[in-house]
Specification:
By secondary structure, the chain is of the alpha+beta class. It contains ten helices and 20 strands. The protein folds into two domains: 237 residues, FAD/NAD(P)-binding domain; 93 residues, 2-Layer Sandwich (D-Amino Acid Oxidase, Chain A, domain 2). The longest helix is centred in the C-terminal third of the chain and has 31 residues.
Amino acid sequence: MTRAPRKVLVVGGGAAGNAVTILLRRAGVTVDLIEARPDWHAATGSGITLQGNALRVLRELGVWEQVEACGFAFGSLGMTAPDGTVLHVVEDIRTGGPDLPATVGMQRPRLQQILIEAVRACGPRIRLGTTVESLDQDADGVSARFSDGSRGRYDLVIAADGRNSATRAMIGIADRPEPTGMAIWRIAAPRPEGLERTDLTHGGPAYIAGYCPTSATTIYAYVVEGCRARASVPAESYADEMRALAEGYGGFWPEIVKHIDDPAKVNYTWFDRHLVEGPWHRGRVVLIGDAAHCCPPTLAQGAAMSLEDASVLAELLTTREDWDDRLLTDYHARRLPRVRMVVDASVQLGRWTLDGVRDADVPGLVGRTMNALKETP
């Protein structure tokens, strides 16, 4: 007897949800993808840093050529003094292997657009402006009721609805992101001539100042400071606040500062730590991406960990006959040590900065972590 095609509900149309949808559809799995935002294209954020292990998954998704064409590849990291003097340049570790760049910077909305186009091309049922109202499970599957009053029946539900995942709470997982004590100001800007890699400055008016090229003509720039109460920083002051910090830096910063003039284009975000230590599933509902874990961007590995989740889960779902508790437990067992390593290292780097630890082994921690990520997940 021929088995009916399996049917999966993916909740969330960000990087993790889009990636797992593409991989499952490629294997012939029926997928419904829902996204809470009515405008799926409205990805927030000024830019994203994609290291080799993220690029490896994007190549698996079949979108590497578009990413390469739209992004800005580079292979080194500069350390500079607050006045812009270059103190040291290190070669980045190629975590995706020798045939991929060490790092690609991209405009985050452009990456989202590339993934959306790939999702649409693979033929899932897509519903925007839609959320899950309830999930009822039994031994054979999950019945979902949606915000538009419709219902669906699924063999598996994949919760890819971000760090504030409503699905995570719905299935009784109480873990939530917790602030680490640091916050970041970000803005997209034109790329100054000669800026061809990420440079980081530790010290000066903020804890960290840096930038990343995101295309031939653009960058995103950021400054990191201690958390302030959000109510004390009105949105209309965002440009003034970021500019006041950024004006204390030299090098390319005076050119960047000229473009910090519109508060609507400045993003202010606290750093969070989040890792669900226990199982990432309840019955036939499983977490991936930021719904299961997130970390400060000190290692630029957040998107990579989400994309790897999608790749590993899709591999298990498309190579095993039984979609059972053992499969989802094995998924968790494969992902937890690697994700914990990244989360803990990312938080530790920030903690050393907050505590002013001058003899911290930052190069050693970064090197060990990045070398470990060269291994396929």
